[in-house]
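To whoever is covering the structure queue this week,

Two jobs came back overnight. Logging them here so there's a record in the thread.

Job A:
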Amino acid sequence: MSVAAPLVLRPGDGVRLRELTRSSTAPAGHLQRARMVLMAAEGLPNAEVARRVGTTRQTVIAWRARYAAGGLGALADLPRPGRPPVIDEAVVVSVTLNPPPADLGITHWSARTLADQLARAGTPVSFAEIARIWRGWGLQPHRVETFKFSTDPQLEAQIRDVVGLYLDPPDKAVVVCVDEKSQIQALDRTAPLLPIRFDQAERRTHDYKRHGTTALFAALEVATGRITTDACYPRHRNNEFLAFLKQVAKAHPRVKLHVVCDNYATHHHPNAKAWLARHPRITLHFTPTSASWMNLVEVFFGIITRQAIRRSTFTSVPDLIGAIRTFIDAYNERCQPFAWTKTADQILTKANRQKNSDTRH
């Protein structure tokens, strides 16, 4: 039996074909064809090439001929025969954007329920095709998110005030964000934790013992990201807030101090107002109602929850407080300031949007 002559590759095709064979994302058929052409270029017989790639000799001969005639472009898939599918994507999208009929008793579409509904309406579409259309149009009926409009009459003034402190802080002054994280529970599991293992996550019992709660008051210095003062109290009334405010003032003596906080009632208590009147170097700046996310210390509260509280076990409230303070000490060694990027106008554009708006929300 005669042996086919080695296939002659076009300049640069060898490198591209070898890169294709190492790809982890290319279709399997393309990888197989690239291997066939490379082996044929090495002078291997067609039967041996077929044996190595797991195909027939006739297939190897066909792809050799395809490459010889058209180069790398000829190794792509040819258009398949048959009538292309006739699916009106507009119908699928239109039905998806409207709630399901009341008689179905469901709150949102799934690919299968929509496929059944369209089939009953005389438009048969497979659920896999519906899922493909959803991906193409960025539709996710299974997901739901929440939002909240702020009804604060001083919304614009307070947003501009707080954002101005972040983006253009006053000269020779210190800006801190203060808040309290209340009801932090000292939870202890009913059995010891099982540590992480290969192919196995850390495990813990679903039930737990409660050993009390504490409230963490924290002040984040905007310029440095440091937690300049921390205090834990059993409760979070106006007395605790005022005591904490005095600690913050003591930590930043003889400078103008601008304090960002939310609209919690204790922050407006007459005791706090009277103390502030006696200390005019300290000014409170309030975030709008339902906009406590504008307080940067909330970012730190999220960090300490994820990294130190949620997965830990505590046998007592003092144990919990000790863990909080240990984390804060270590955090201050590596902290960096949080970069506020949104301008007041950008925030107000979304805050003032109309409920019937078609813009992205």
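Job B:
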Amino acid sequence: MVAKISTGKDLYGTLAYNQTKVEEGHAKVLDANLLPYPEDGHFRMGETMEAFTAWLPSHYRTEKPVIHISLNPHPDDVLTDGQLAAIGREYMEKLGYGNQPFLIFKHTDIDRHHIHIVSLRVDSGGRKISDRFEHRRSKEITEQLE
């Protein structure tokens, strides 16, 4: 399993990228953590942005409060949506984001199905989630998940 971690400022752009894939039929939301799940199962950009921004405190010093992770299982692995969601949740928990709001998207736009996870790197008190040795820890986590 390979993980790619990106950070940035643009929550809207990150969510819009994934939402566009959903609207094109190349992705779907598998799971949500600490965010209201719509009764009809369809996330809407406005409501999703509001839910995420409600978690952001008015003051924080982190320049890049958004994290976007792509988790790519081995191409030979055939995993169910439930397994992919469980992998995403466990990955986020072990990386230190288990108490953060996040969405897990399954992307089917290429032959290899994979998941994208969007979350915040700032907790509700304005403190940055530790990114110390994040790439090294991520590699260890993906090896454990395999």
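Note for Job B: The two ends are 6 Å apart (CA to CA).

Please reply-all if you pick these up so we don't duplicate work.
Q.
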